[in-house]
Every structure is written in structure tokens, then in C-alpha cells.
Design a protein that fits this description.
Elements: E1 2-6, H1 13-24, E2 27-30, H2 31-41, H3 44-54, H4 61-72, E3 81-84, H5 90-102, E4 109-114, H6 117-126, E5 127-130, E6 136-138, E7 157-158, H7 165-188, E8 192-196, H8 201-215
Helix pairs in contact: 1-8, 2-3
Bound molecules: adenosine monophosphate (AMP).
Adenosine monophosphate (AMP) is lined by residues 9, 31-32, 35, 52-53, 56-59, 64, 85-86, 88, 92, 162, 171.
């Protein structure tokens, strides 16, 4: 199964993709996670990407494409994958199609996690991320058992730099500018399915699983 999760920041793409990957035994590819890892390691890519990320802007398509291409070379994606955070615009969608075609692979299902603005703001405002394993928590919706500590690996939880209010506003603006054309692109290919992501994470997960099993 090859799945794309589309949706605004705060839609729960990361949380859902991680759980879905475990449930369906698929590779989870998050371009945001890969970029943050590069920033953490201060790689050449990380140094270039950092400024864009801190301002809530998209990292240039070419840089992200190179990074993704390397990820697709890894063995684990053969079992299928969930793309989380890619594509973010039409150019990236077309790049993805070309990359997959070169490997004789195609996307089965695109799940659009439709989320209302108040929910986005509430989720991002309270999001905490594990500095070690990347699991997302939320101060109210999904609090860790022990404050500031990851339930799974005891890593330290932190607030993402780009989850600060001003950057969040920019990220939502960038997202809204690009999403309509992506929705059209995948609707034309008959791959787009919309699920409301305002509900509880568990409810949304069950809906996604039912959907991808039907269409996979
Ligand atoms: P995310 O973790 O998906 O919210 O992404 C965090 C940040 O990483 C975004 O605000 C962008 O700056 C950058 N980023 C992640 N994925 C992409 C992408 N596909 N294209 C460009 N920039 C990206």
C-alpha cells in the first residue's frame, strides 16, 4: 500500500501516520522529521533548510526532492509506505509521480485530513514532541504519563520551534495557498478521500484504516 496523508499543520498527519505505519506494517516517511533530523545533525541540507523552517516557509523543492529520493532508495519502503508532509505543492506532486514511475510504483490512496482552524490552533499550541523518538503528545489532548517525558522511550519532550504562534500563522497561510491545487490534482486521478480530522485521534485512525483497506 502506498498512501499519502494530506492536511494542514495540526491535522494529526504525524500521529496518524505513525500509528497507521505500525498497524499496516508500512514505512513512515515524514519529510518534516527528515528535515528536523538534518537540522539536528547540522548537515549541509540541514543548514540550508533551517532558516526556511524557522520562518514557517517551505524548504526549496529541489532540496526536499533530493532528500526524498535517498529515502526511497532504502529497503524498507518496499513493503509500502505512508507519506506525511509530502507533497506540499503541485511541483512536488509531479516530482513524486516521476520518482515513483522510475520505480514502477504508484500511489493507491490520498487521504485528506480536513481540519478546522480552531482545532489546528488548539492542537499546535499544546503539541509536545519527543526529542528522541519523535512521538507527538499534547498538553491536553494526549498528555504524557509523566510531565515532560516520553511514555515510550523516556526521551525529553519539547515544543517545536515552528509551533510558536507567529510561525504557525505563516505555516497555515502557506498551506492554504497550495492545498487547493493538490486536492484538484488527486481528485482528477480519483485517489482523493476526505476525512474530518477534528475528532479524537483514535476515531480518525479507525476511519483511515477502513478507507485504505477498501482502496489499497
Ligand atoms: P512538518 O513537520 O510536516 O509540519 O514540516 C515542518 C517544516 O518542514 C515545514 O514548515 C517546512 O518548512 C518543512 N517541510 C516539511 N516537508 C516539506 C516539504 N514537502 N516541502 C518543503 N518543506 C517542507
Amino acid at each position: 500500500m502506498k498512501i499519502i496523508l494530506l492536511g494542514p499543520p495540526g491535522a494529526g498527519k504525524g500521529t496518524q501516520a505513525k500509528r497507521l505505519a505500525e498497524e499496516l506494517v508500512l514505512a513512515h516517511i515524514s519529510t518534516g522529521d527528515l528535515l528536523r533530523q538534518n537540522v539536528k545533525e547540522a548537515s549541509a541540507l540541514g543548514k540550508e533548510a533551517r532558516g526556511f523552517m524557522e520562518r514557517g516557509l517551505l524548504v526549496p523543492d529541489e532540496l526536499v526532492a533530493q532528500m526524498l529520493k535517498k529515502r526511497f532508495d532504502q529497503e524498507d519502503i518496499r513493503k509500502g509506505f505512508i507519506l506525511d508532509g509530502y507533497p506540499r505543492n503541485i511541483n512536488q506532486a509531479e516530482t513524486l509521480d516521476r520518482m515513483l514511475k522510475d520505480n514502477n510504483v504508484r500511489i493507491d490512496t490520498v487521504v485528506y485530513l480536513d481540519t478546522s482552524d480552531p482545532v489546528i490552533i488548539q492542537r499546535l499550541g499544546g503539541r509536545l514532541v519527543c526529542s528522541n523518538c519523535g512521538t507527538n503528545f499534547h498538553t491536553r489532548n494526549m498528555p504524557p504519563k509523566k510531565e515532560g517525558i516520553c511514555d515510550y522511550c523516556a526521551g525529553k519532550l519539547y515544543q517545536r520551534n515552528d509551533d510558536k504562534e507567529e510561525t504557525v500563522r505563516k505555516r497555515i497561510e502557506v498551506y492554504k495557498k497550495e492545498v487547493a491545487s493538490l486536492i484538484k490534482y488527486y481528485r482528477q486521478q480519483n485517489k482523493l478521500h476526505t476525512i474530518s480530522s477534528d475528532e479524537d485521534a483514535g476515531v480518525v485512525l479507525n476511519k483511515i484504516i477502513a478507507l485504505v483497506r477498501q482502496n489499497g
